[in-house]
Specification:
single chain; alpha/beta; Rossmann fold; 2 domains; eight-stranded mixed β-sheet; 19 helices; 13 strands; Alpha/beta hydrolase; hydrolase; AB_hydrolase_fold
């Protein structure tokens, strides 16, 4: 009986906090808004609910959202079955200060990585997402850390900016709307903060925050700024390179590199580069097809490059061997001109998808196929390889045998594997029909037998091009690629 009493006293009210408002929303047809955040959002939630009464049903996540690690653990619980129209969210202060989580990895990099996971999950709800920038750190050592945890923690403006920029980069990448509460309250921090050693606000301060939160939610509800659906196709269409430059002229054909520069890029930089080569069976596609991959590591400070190469279309006289030559020429040009491109010549990662993966492999493997006028003293060997559902075998058991012709073995990656290849990360689906699983596993085995680093990310049920059809897989591939590059010195 005592247990039942406790359930009635503590559990049911907590459930009612979420369930009853959603029931009202279902009956009235009002938009459903979820607030996710720490005690700052807890401070303004009551006023937000009051101001939106009759316009929307507002629910705050149960308890304190704490740091991003808590968010990753509890996000499913907070999302529930709400079918949310708007999600207004923030993590930040706990990642900066730590409090109970002081011993966890809360670096700006770890913060960004966990935000990436959280935003990817929130996108799947279909709700309009609004990121609230983290309100300012207090100018003096924070009182709770000092009194309760006996540690003086003072967040410098530089460190605070690193967290703000880390979050901003994730939101920009995903096209999430920004509610800049930091800039709103910062000029009047002394007026509205409860003290110089406290991150919280007075009632008047929470009122200021609440009014801006409501304004942003009302815009979202009204649809004045409809949220774009992020997809691989939309990224292909909307992304624009910072610069397009020629790297090779073959006959009357000028071949180009499409460059994407990170924020703050300067020509004298020595940045790591992620060079990508599009697929299309060697006969189709163009650099724009792989713009999403070229741009994927740009927020992390990489120069992204998408390569144009000649296509082996019937009647043009261009062969698959020419595609390989062009790919090798592109990497050689990038390394030879690294200084003017702002790239570190020893930190060039090359990735490719499908037939582009074959061409990417060719930059490391096929040393007997180069343009006659190439400066062979400059290496075209990448410092790391990323294979995205790549063509691995050009025999009759693999792909493209008829198109390649009788000399297929000379440019068949499976049959040319050797020691000393770059560290290689392979993304593949177990239902890929271009490089079926038995060929894939034999490729990985031979790579390892030769002493090469070869990591496989195998997607169960994944078909050819699987990453391009699922933004969750795309973002995961980008995160894994970044981690792989960094682990091999490309950072």
């Amino acid at each position: 009986m005592r247990l039942v009493s406790r359930i009635l006293r503590y559990v049911l009210p907590a459930i009612a906090v979420a369930v009853l408002p959603l029931a009202v929303a279902a009956e009235t047809g009002l938009p459903k808004v979820l607030l996710i955040g720490d005690s700052i959002s807890g401070g303004y939630q009551k006023e937000v609910k009051r101001l939106l009464d009759g316009k929307a049903v507002v629910v705050k996540n149960e308890g304190n959202a704490q740091y991003t690690g808590t968010g990753v653990k509890k996000i499913e619980q907070w999302l529930g079955d709400g079918d949310w129209d708007v999600i207004h969210f923030n993590w930040g202060l706990w990642d900066m200060y730590g409090w109970e989580f002081a011993n966890e990895d809360r670096s700006p990099q770890a913060y960004a990585e966990r935000l990436e996971k959280l935003v990817t999950r929130l996108e799947k709800t279909g709700a309009t997402l609004i990121w609230a920038t983290t309100t300012p750190a207090c100018p003096e050592p924070e009182v709770t850390m000092k009194n309760r945890f006996k540690t003086e923690v003072k967040i410098s403006p530089d460190l605070e900016k690193r967290y703000l920029d880390a979050a901003g980069g994730v939101m920009k990448k995903h096209g999430v709307r920004i509610n800049d509460l930091h800039s709103l309250i910062r000029p009047d921090l002394e007026k509205y903060a409860t003290g110089p050693d406290n991150v919280h606000f007075t009632g008047a301060g929470y009122g200021v925050l609440a009014r801006q939160v409501v304004a942003e939610i009302e815009k979202a509800i009204a649809g004045s700024e409809p949220r774009k659906v992020r997809s691989f196709a939309s990224m292909q269409k909307e992304l624009q390179p910072s610069k397009i430059i020629p790297y090779k002229t073959v006959g009357d054909r000028e071949l180009t590199l499409h460059l994407f520069h990170p924020d703050g890029f300067k020509p004298g930089d020595r940045r790591p580069a992620y060079v990508v080569i599009h697929g299309g069976g060697w006969v189709g596609g163009d650099p724009r097809r792989f713009y999403p991959y070229a741009q994927s590591l740009v927020p992390e400070g990489y120069v992204g490059i998408s390569v144009e190469y000649r296509l082996a279309k019937p009647g043009t006289g261009v062969t698959v061997f020419d595609c390989v030559k062009d790919g090798r020429a592109a990497i050689r040009y990038i390394r030879a001109h690294a200084a003017e491109l702002g790239i570190d010549p020893k930190k060039i990662g090359v990735g490719g998808g499908s037939a582009g993966g074959h061409v990417a492999l060719g930059t490391a493997l096929f040393d007997d196929f180069d343009h006659a006028d190439e400066d062979l003293s400059v290496s075209c060997r990448p410092d790391a390889l990323v294979l995205l559902f790549a063509v691995l075998d050009t025999s009759s058991k693999g792909y493209g045998n008829a198109r390649v012709g009788k000399d297929w073995k000379s440019i068949s990656p499976l049959h040319r594997i050797r020691s000393g290849m770059p560290p290689t990360l392979v993304f593949h689906g177990d239902r890929d029909n271009v490089a079926p699983e038995p060929i894939l596993m034999e490729f990985v085995k031979r790579m390892k037998d030769e002493g090469n680093v070869c990591e496989l990310v195998l997607e169960k049920g994944g078909r050819h091009g699987h990453i391009n059809n699922d933004m969750g897989l795309f973002d995961d591939a980008a995160a894994r690629t970044l981690k792989f590059f960094r682990s091999h010195g490309l950072k």
